[in-house]
Design goal:
374 residues, alpha+beta, four-stranded mixed sheet, 22% strand, Endonuclease, signal, Endonuclease-I, nuclease, endonuclease
């Protein structure tokens, strides 16, 4: 009997010693890299950015999500290496709020997860989740639409005017160039309807339409050059002509109506695109995408500065422009303020950066750059 009591005393002592350690792990949030080093069965709380949906030990979907069953977290919001991610198994109570198939706008959010360290898909993971919270990271970002691009813009810090414009050009200049045929497939991903993964959203009409109803027929969608390709004479050549930061799906006849008009307020209602107006030399899109249009135009004016045989694009403060200019600057600045950056734009920017071109639109990440340059 004495031996049994001694045994029980040792067991209870061990429990009392282990339990506080496990509680400390649960209370103190770990980075993804720290959590991956914990032993299986350890209760952990881990913080990280949502970077996709794991479907196997070797694959994480970072767009066009196919399920709500798991998340991949990383310390870097732009992480693409599975070896630097931890997989989070989502039980049924968390799927409706955090699953990326239903909530693609959650991509890039900074969250805190508590659960048990255990492999998932034979990869470092967390299962038996007890809580998930969306929160802000130490930089003040999170589910508040901030810049998730890490140190991407460090060299532009403190600059203004032409110096800032020049430095931003240097940052975003060299990127992967797509063929014009590749643009079809890219837009099916970048402009996917968040509520219907089979469709894309059309820029000027807002219509949700099948990804594969594309072409030149009436009511097909086609590839709109927001910076009209005749304003710089770049056509559909690789580079400016295929840069998906300014290419968007649009109704083919609405695209034809826009033509190569500058952007400004006023005119007559455009029949197919509600809230859109046009006159002889200007085009006013619906309120919901005015800021999107402005930020795409500003991107093009910074990205294409005439080097390496590329066009030198500039934003002019009038309509009826010609050559490599596009207007109207004062109106575009107004639209930029009127229609702030949306989660759709942020997601699109992230996908273009991680999956296609490897560069970003600075005016989505840092809206303040517009006023600092122009």
């Amino acid at each position: 009997m004495k031996q049994v009591k001694q045994f029980l005393f040792v067991v209870v002592s061990m429990v009392l010693l282990v339990s506080p350690l496990q509680q400390a792990h649960a209370a103190e949030a770990l980075t993804v890299q720290e959590a991956m080093k914990e032993y299986d069965g350890t209760k952990v709380t881990v913080e990280g950015y949502i970077v996709g949906v794991p479907t196997s030990v070797y694959h994480v979907e970072q767009s066009n999500f196919s399920s709500n069953y798991a998340l991949a977290l990383a310390d870097d919001p732009n992480e693409t290496q599975q070896s630097d991610m931890i997989y989070i198994k989502l039980d049924s109570q968390y799927r409706s709020e955090y699953g990326l198939q239903n909530n693609p706008d959650n991509m890039g959010d900074f969250i805190e997860v508590s659960g048990e360290r255990d492999d998932y898909f034979s990869h470092d993971g967390v299962e038996y989740v007890t809580s998930i919270q969306t929160k802000q990271d130490n930089g003040g970002n999170g589910n508040d639409g901030g810049d998730t691009s890490g140190s991407y813009y460090d060299s532009a810090s403190g600059l203004t005017g032409s110096s800032l414009k020049t430095e931003l050009h240097t940052i975003i200049d060299d990127h992967t160039e797509l063929s014009y045929d590749d643009v079809w497939g890219a837009l099916r991903v970048t402009d996917q309807d968040p509520y219907n993964s089979s469709n894309v959203l059309l820029l000027y009409t807002g219509r949700s339409q099948s990804k594969y109803e594309n072409g030149g027929n009436i009511d097909d969608w086609n590839r709109e050059h927001v910076w009209a390709k005749s304003h710089g004479d770049f056509g559909t050549t690789m580079g400016a002509g295929t840069d998906i930061h300014h290419l968007r799906p649009t109704d083919s006849t609405v695209n034809s109506s826009r033509g190569n008009k500058d952007f400004d307020n006023g005119g007559s209602a455009q029949g197919e695109a509600a809230g859109t107006y046009a006159d002889a030399d200007s085009w006013e899109p619906r309120d919901e995408v005015k800021g999107d249009v402005a930020r795409m135009v500003f991107y093009m004016a910074v990205r294409y500065e005439g080097g390496s045989g590329e066009p030198d694009l500039e934003v002019a403060n009038y309509t009826g422009t010609s050559g490599s200019q596009l207007g109207k600057l004062s109106t575009l600045k107004q639209w930029h303020e009127q229609d702030p950056v949306s989660t759709f734009e942020e997601r699109r920017n992230d996908i273009i950066f991680s999956d296609y071109q490897g560069n970003r639109n600075p005016f989505i990440d840092h809206p303040e750059y517009v006023e600092q340059i122009w």
